[in-house]
Amino acid sequence: MMAEKQTEVSMSGSLGGRIETWVERSLFAARWLIAPFYLGMALALVGLLIVFCRQLVGGLAHIAALDAEHALLLALSLIDLSLAANLMLIVMLAGYENFVSRMHFTEHEDRPAWMGTVDFADLKIKVIASIVAISAIALLRAFLPLGEPDTPVDGRRLLWMVVIHLAFVVSALLLTFMDRLSGAHEAPHSGGNA
Questions:
Q1: pLDDT of 12-61, one tens digit each?
Q2: Do the Cβ atoms of 93 and 136 come closer than 8 Å?
Q3: Could you tell me the end-to-end alpha-carbon distance of the chain, in angstroms, rounded to an integer?
Q4: C-beta separation of 74 from 55 below 8 A
Q5: For the chain, what is the largest distance between any 2 Cα atoms, rounded to a whole number of angstroms?
Q6: Proportion of the chain in helix, strand, coil states, percent, rounded to 5
């Protein structure tokens, strides 16, 4: 009777172990479900490139007629698109390496130096810093035409743009502070184990 109970326990333990292994493998394999998001971001990069080229060609077609302010607006628009593309590339590559799989061309001469070194905490900081930069450029673009005497001013829109930009800045500062604070608590703990 005792031998039967031990056999039953070991069978249920082995069944439980197999179920646990299956669940763990399924959850681990589920990381591939986010790979299409990164492929979608690659397609969105193509869309940004098309918009960038359209703005560049349109600006260059009228370059002789542009005054300094409009030339600056064109440059800011191109910088804005470039920052957005950089942000997408960082999120796409770092996200793939952090959450899906390592890329297998580590020895490639064109591999960016930051690849493989940007963890989730670094990625959050890079994303919020890029959002602040993009917001600042949009704010600057909105304020540049204010120097023209005939330009109508939408004060309410400008106020909201400033408020939103400040919210991004405060969020970035708080996120950086929290990240440093959590890093300060982790460092002594890991040093104590060494």
A1: 568 888 899 999 999 999 989 999 999 999 999 999 999 999 999 998 88
A2: no
A3: 50
A4: yes
A5: 98
A6: 85, 0, 15
